[in-house]
Amino acid sequence: MEEARSSLARQERPGGSDPACNPPRFASLCITDTRQGLAQARAFTRRTLGHWELDHRSDDAVLIVNELATNAVLHAAPHSAAGQNGVRLNLTLRRAHLVCAVTDQYDSPPVCPRTDTPLEVHGRGLRIVEELSEHWGWTRSRAGKTVWAMLPTPPSRPTSPPWQGPT
């Protein structure tokens, strides 16, 4: 069962739908330690960003959330008490950034394993997060740890075609 808490309702202020003019928004999802739970996290992220009119950030955010959530489910969930998964996805829209954060009950730091072979399947998740995000990191708390990544929210500016001279 999907447990979600969010503030998807619009809080209009001067500036209309411009995310930079609105107060922070928050959405949260408890992730089960199954493939279905990871699929729900991806769908939840895409749906939430659609509500926040951030479709242009959706692909990167979904990939980041998938990597962070997969790491938590694979590495942290096995250390949780029986029946107490404790993996939670939080999405926060701030003035100029979307913060994707996954909290789990395991307090060991995230590890970026060295991958020497170009076709290695495992060990690339945090490197993908690093490449797609503006910043990423982790914090430890009494409850475990949170791994987060920040994506800038302003739309990318279209580039003008090179000047071709008079026609």
TrEMBL record:
Keywords: Kinase, Serine/threonine-protein kinase, Transferase. Residues 1-23 are annotated as: Disordered. It comes from the Bacteria. The keyword Kinase applies. Residues 37-149 form the Histidine kinase/HSP90-like ATPase domain. It comes from Streptomyces olivochromogenes. This is ATPase. Gene3D superfamilies: Histidine kinase-like ATPase, C-terminal domain. GO terms for molecular function: protein serine/threonine kinase activity. InterPro entries: Anti-sigma-factor_SerPK (IPR050267), HATPase_C_sf (IPR036890), HATPase_dom (IPR003594).
